[in-house]
Amino acid sequence: MTTLFQKNTRIQQMQKLYRQICEYQNKQMNNAIKSGINENDITIILEYLQQDDPETLSQLLRDGKFKCITVKGIQRLRHKLTPEILKMVTKNYNLELITINIINVKLSQEMTDMLAQGITNVQYLKELKLSQCSLTANLFGRLQSSLMQNSSIVNLDLSKNQLCGPFGLLLLGILQEHYERRQNLEWVYHSRGESPEEDVSQNGICELNLSHNKLTDQFIKDLTPFLQKDRWIKEIQLNHNQIQRDGVEYVNKILEVNYSLIVLDLTNNMGITKGLQEQIQLKLLRNQQQPKQQDKQVDILVNVSDIPDNQHVSYDQESPGVSFGVFDNPIRSSIQQKKKQYECSQCMKLSDTVRKQQLYIKGLEKTILKLKQRAKHNFSQTSQSLLHPQSSMNYLLEHHQVNEQDEELEGIENMMNDLTRMMDNIDAQGSATQNLTAHLSSTILGMNNVTRVMYERDDRNQEQQQEQLMNILGQNSISHNSDT
């Protein structure tokens, strides 16, 4: 924990560094820059900058090793020094820089391109905030490629802009890329039987602030298929947008199968109602209380360690088969292609069935507990009626509860029948999965035998060729001696 004394000492050191830089460059010190220096961050207010400040400021950013740089405008006007300052910030190769905030700065295409290049350069950037920047979907499209390539950004804040229209599809491309990267990284460790050396969830966007924009129901529809399968996004701020009731209902359906989102703000949207808000909050509370969900997709993996050293496994992109080759004929395939070929649709259906079964079981447990409580209550009433005849009339009036119990018991019986059918389906699908695994194992063994036979045949052919070559050389030597 940094003490107040250490904090003040750090600030004084940075201010002293700025003064030394100004003296060395023979420039006048700007008090606005000096007052913007904090312990590990610096705030640059564009309206207070002078013509000579960028040169000294560039040296300060390079030597100060700030963790956070904030560029702020007082009025949302395009200051003449803004492009130069943004270029300076985004070309800062300080390895300790983890946060860039651009606030109340009206961005142009040129500035957006500078930011795109900087996002690629800053390798350890964790938080990027572009707030009140008049950012549109077209300008955001210039950032898409850089955001897709950057694997370090965890928190993306695009609040108080003018995002609408095709922005949903642009954001979907970024989130999909981050999702596949994390899935592939996790798959690599899993295939090796190792635990990840780093937190895989931090290799991509986890938090989104899209509040105070112009997002509509179409934005929710564009992201619905992705959010239904995603398990990495933890927080989305969508308050103060233009989402109608259909969009809110889409969000409610997403949370029926999404167990990773723990914060989702939809307040101050026209479609939010008290009932839908309560349903969404209950699902978010469920996600907060339960442990981290594992991937629901069950992958069938081949243990590479069981394959001889002189062979390798390649995964055919068009068929889920396994092919073998010798060391002098390598087949290159990406990790993404490997994973896709082993996504078993039967296993995914099996996982969904198990999840539904768990919901049935929870419903049964609640109903049985309710029946037990009612049975105790009825037993106590029956005992009181036998001891106190005057209360027997009240007991008869409440006797209709037995019919309700009969209906609930009938409902439990139907649920148990459904559960039994689901268990039978699980057994059948499980046996199919085992058959597929056995088929893969037998295929591997068969190909091992084929490869061994091929090696033996090649060895025999090489021996025969060597014998023929030696015979030819011997005959040539004898004929040469006789001629001599």
Task: Summarize this structure briefly.
The protein is an alpha/beta fold and 484 residues long. The chain is built from 14 helices and ten strands.
Describe the structure.
The N and C termini lie far apart (96 Å). The chain has helices at 4-25, 31-35, 53-64, 82-90, 109-121, 137-149, 167-192, 217-229, 245-257, 274-289, 335-341, 345-387, 392-397, 401-483; strands at residues 41-45, 68-72, 99-103, 127-131, 155-157, 207-209, 235-237, 263-265, 311-315, 322-326. It has 14 helices and 10 strands. Helices cover 58% and strands 9% of the residues. Helix 3 links the parallel strand 1 (41-45) and strand 2 (68-72). With 484 residues, the chain is α/β, with parallel strands linked by helices. The chain is flat and about 100 Å long. The strands form 2 sheets. The chain has an 8-stranded parallel sheet.
Fold blueprint:
Layout: H1 4-25, H2 31-35, E1 41-45, H3 53-64, E2 68-72, H4 82-90, E3 99-103, H5 109-121, E4 127-131, H6 137-149, E5 155-157, H7 167-192, E6 207-209, H8 217-229, E7 235-237, H9 245-257, E8 263-265, H10 274-289, E9 311-315, E10 322-326, H11 335-341, H12 345-387, H13 392-397, H14 401-483
Parallel strand pairs: 1-2, 2-3, 3-4, 4-5, 5-6, 6-7, 7-8
Antiparallel strand pairs: 9-10
Shape, per Cα inertia axes: flat
Strand order of the largest sheet: 1-2-3-4-5-6-7-8
Structural class: alpha/beta
Which percent band covers the strand fraction?
A: 5-15%
Count the DSSP helices.
Answer: 14
Radius of gyration: 34 Å
How many DSSP-defined strands?
Answer: 10
**Can you give the helix content as a percent range?**
55-70%
Instruction: Please give the alpha-carbon distance between the first and last residues.
Output: 96 Å
